[in-house]
Design brief:
With about 325 residues, the protein is mainly beta. It is built from three helices and 16 strands. The chain starts with about 25 loop residues before the first helix and ends with a strand. Helix 1 packs across helix 2 (about 110-120). The strands form three sheets. Strands 2, 3, 6, 7, 8, 9, 10, 11, 12, 13 and 16 form an eleven-stranded antiparallel beta sheet that branches. A three-stranded mixed beta sheet has the order 1-5-4, with helices on one face. A two-stranded antiparallel sheet has the order 14-15. Strand 14 (about 305) and strand 15 form a beta hairpin. Helices cover about 10% and strands about 40% of the residues. It is elongated and about 85 Å long.
């Protein structure tokens, strides 16, 4: 129904009235509602709210799209040590710089309404043009079709290191492998200035450009380290994943009303271990994921894209310690 609708608490049988002390909406939201032609202190009170109120949401393609374009620059090198026969070592380092202009995205209906009424003063979001209202003042239509949002960039470094060496134990070879994969995020800019209404001020344009590098969704440092030991018919694997802590740099994205939620994450380590027995035509693996039962910080989903308040798409484990058994057979 949108942020302009007010749902006051009231005792049964008593007509609800507006109580400003119980209104947690910001002044920006209240002013935007007034500019949109509705009264945020009365919309939603008994007598003007239909029990069957619904909102039509339009999704999919759009004839107003322009083709997005991208430019990418990548440079790197690989070194393999040739001096020693006792071990193999290779190092690969790469720098990447990608820029997408007129990036295409499909905004959610909730995002459109929030951006219009909660995030920008004076109805300064172009998304406001995608919202329709009924004669009663309630939102009854949201155009959530694809649109060109602006500019996206990604810059950073990737490092891969592979070390292999053979040891002799009990006259049999023990093959050890260490594999390290590291990423350093330098820049993740999202420029939404294209979504502002015409005539936006310099301050509004600056606020629409956000470098998300170092925030919970795009941590500055990530690495995976895997140690593998192969001896006779056995393989042991220990894997450690690291995600550096991040902090959302926009305080207005953080609600702060729930005590255990945060707009920041701490450095995070997770460890997995497994043992495989493979004599030839069959194999069995037992292991433990998240050995030390480490949970990530629970974040405010107003600030960070998350599910169950856990950041997703980053590598966090929201399930805790668990054991597993796998078996396979060749026929």
């Amino acid at each position: 129904l949108g942020p302009c609708v007010h749902f006051p608490a009231q005792a049964p049988g008593i007509d609800p009235t507006y109580n400003p002390d119980g209104d947690t909406r910001s002044q920006i939201t209240l002013d935007n509602c007034v500019q949109a032609g509705v009264d945020p202190t009365s919309l939603g009170l008994a007598g003007n709210l239909s029990a069957n109120q619904s909102v039509e949401i339009s999704t999919g393609g759009s004839q107003n799209l322009v083709a997005e374009e991208s430019e990418s620059f990548t440079v790197g090198f690989t070194v393999e040590q040739p001096w020693f026969d006792a071990f193999d070592l290779s190092v690969n380092l790469a720098y990447y710089d990608t820029e997408i202009t007129d990036a295409v995205a499909e905004p959610g209906a909730g995002f459109i309404v929030r951006d219009c009424f909660e995030d920008n003063p004076n109805l300064g979001s172009a998304f406001c043009q995608r919202i329709g209202r009924s004669d009663g003042g309630f939102i009854d239509f949201v155009d959530a079709s694809f649109l060109n949002i602006g500019l996206e960039t990604a810059k950073g470094f990737d490092l891969n290191l592979l070390y292999q060496q053979e040891f002799i134990i009990g006259e049999r070879p023990l093959d050890m492998t260490f594999d390290l994969r590291l990423n350093k995020t330098e820049e993740r800019i999202l420029d939404l200035s294209n979504t502002l209404a015409p005539g936006a001020s310099a301050e509004e344009i600056e606020a629409a450009i956000d470098d998300n590098a170092g925030e919970p969704e795009f941590p500055e440092w990530q690495w995976n380290a895997t140690l593998i030991g192969d001896y006779r018919d056995f393989r042991t694997v220990w894997q450690t994943r690291f995600i550096s802590g991040g902090n959302d740099d926009r305080d207005d994205d953080f609600d702060g009303s729930v005590e255990f939620l945060t707009d920041a994450t701490e450095d995070y380590f997770i460890h997995n271990v497994s043992l495989t027995y493979d004599p030839g035509s069959w194999a069995v693996t037992v292991g433990i994921e998240n050995v030390f039962d480490e949970f990530p910080n629970r974040v405010d989903d107003d600030a960070t894209f998350s599910v169950r308040n856990f950041p997703i798409g980053v590598g966090y484990d929201p399930f805790g310690r668990r054991a597993f058994v796998q078996a396979s057979k060749e026929f």
